[in-house]
Amino acid sequence: MELTIAKHCVAKGDDGLSPLQRALLDNAQRIRIAEAPTGAGKSYAFQRALHDRGERVLFIVPTRRLAQNLASGLVQDLIASGWSEERARSVVALWSSDQTADLKAQGIVHINGLRLRQMQALKLGSHDGEMIVAVPEVVSALLVLRRIESGQAGDGVFDLLADFDHIVFDEFHTIEARGFGLAALFARLATAGHESSSGYGRAKLSFLSATPLDLLSTLERVGVTPDQVAVLREELVDDGRPLHGDVVLSVRDALSLRDLIQEHIEDIRAEINANRQVVVIYDSLAALEKDLPFLARSFPASGINPTRVLVVNSVRDSIAQGLHDAGFAIGRKCDPLAYDLILATASVEMGVTFRKANLMLMEPGFEPMNFLQRYGRAARRGDDGRVIVRLEAARIDRDPWLRTLRDWVQAHIGQQLSIKDLTDVLSQAAVASNPRAMAAGTFGQLSGQAAWCAGLYWNLLMDHASNRGHRSEHLFQHRPATAKGLYRLEQAVKRLADDPHLEPYVAQWLRLFRAQALDLRTIERKIRVVNERGEGFDYPEVWLKRETTVYERFPLIEDEIRIQGSVDDYWRDEPDRNAKRRWICHFPHTSETCTLPYDSRLVDAWCREIENVDHYAVDWEEQSEALEAAKKLVRLTGLVPGHDPNIPVDAVSVIL
Questions:
Q1: Pairing between strand 582-587 and 590-597?
Q2: CB contact set of 231 (below 8 Å; sequence gap of 6+)
Q3: β-pair type (204-209, 229-233)
Q4: If pLDDT is split at 50, 70 and 90, which confidence band does 322 have?
Q5: How far apart are CA 73 and CA 68, in angstroms?
Q6: What pTM was computed for the model?
Q7: Domains of the chain (ranges plus CATH)?
Q8: Are 594 and 613 in contact (CB under 8 A)?
Q9: How much is the pLDDT for 132?
Q10: Most exposed: 203, 251, 517, 633, by fewest CB within 10 Å?
């Protein structure tokens, strides 16, 4: 089954900007939510703000690969516009774990101090604009430094709002409820009325995505009303700057993506011979990894050079650069533009730039937004192309949105439709699968826990050493209702400490609860597996247990396992479904803990266990208010005080 998505463009003014790009720079509202197709140049608008207007931009992205690509791409674009390399590099900074490692290698010790100075200016006395590209954890860490050093106590959220013209959250559909606090903090203070001003600082806050979340209701719960938010959408036109050419969308029921590759191997070779790129996107990391040896054998026979193939996934991106056993290139610092064929997982949905990728073979992803993000990576800049999607029967039976997509394609076989038609059917499928009301055209919604997590993050900052005096007063004055509610519940739990025997347990439990606010994303523990060649890769711990027998064959020593051969020698015939992430849960009335599965049922399980663990330590009938307050704190935020089994409790609580 196949249909064609017609070529589409955006209007372009005399300055080269589209209406949306211009609105991102000129719209008077301090908060903007911007929706535009992939390839529409949402991030380019802020490059122009730097280049043309001398403005300062803090650009926050979800992955270090995306941060690296944006920063290096910006430098190259500035050089191409006539700037010297020295001038271009002086106005761009990268804040990520990779950059931290590079600075340490250069002998720079006080990295937080360097970044705090960079907040104010990258180049003192310069009139050029500047851009800092950062992952959210680095920005958050600067706001909640564990140790306030001399001369640094005055830096914080108010300085960020004052020192930058724009603060941007790119790919904001990736924000988790637990990580919404950072964005909510900026949004609330940027719109909070005080004295004669309508908000603190000057920075405008922009949320960018091709598959936007319905954020308005969540923002309203932290005090940002809909009339304070500009919702910006790019209008598509028939003639203008082309985003994509005519793209044939084919839906196939193949046994595996490997079979689909073999079926289209001649098409792949033809694209490569025409100096175009081919992209293959898997849903499963295990499936991709298992296919690599076979593909390494079959590609040379089809005239495809393995050294011109790049593998992109979370495991292979755990190193900077290298070669897979099969001869494929791997590593997050490999330039995707330099390769003919990319074999990838969802890692390429963000942060990977393709070179004339007019043929894409892909699996659909796990949600409608994944599908659209992947589809939008193909046939950029007006080129015609083809996207071939593998839909397996089992997935169609299980996922209603895939049935909707299949039925839509089947109903329009051979027809030419618009990108809006495709976007609408995917958005409608997302809305239909969400139990809560969602705005039309959106692809998801943060859970109700997001506003409560934002309140917890706010309370954490109010108590922080960088926010004393008038700053603390401002934060207190404008704190959202959720922050007030959590504070009252924490006070109710603290009444357990009236019993001196319980005081240390109450204090530790509340410290662990607040520590959860600093983990902006649910990131599973990684295990480094070192093969017999001495190459080490970071694997998700549960994935490693579920898909391989490595854990059973070799000892784990300080987060590292050394194996004979390679991981390919230890695949299970069937995944171990008993392999699950575990969580050591703490309680406010005892030193006893319990270990529970870290899954969607964790909150309910903890609320049951609190009355069973060490039930002699406290009479819950007498302390019913404290009991209900503790349960409510966990239910409202979805955060269970605790830690991974291999992380000592002291390592968690010391951050506060």
A1: antiparallel
A2: 32, 33, 35, 216
A3: unpaired
A4: confident
A5: 8
A6: 0.91
A7: 19-233 (3.40.50.300), 241-433 (3.40.50.300), 480-520+581-653 (no CATH), 526-570 (no CATH)
A8: yes
A9: 94
A10: 251
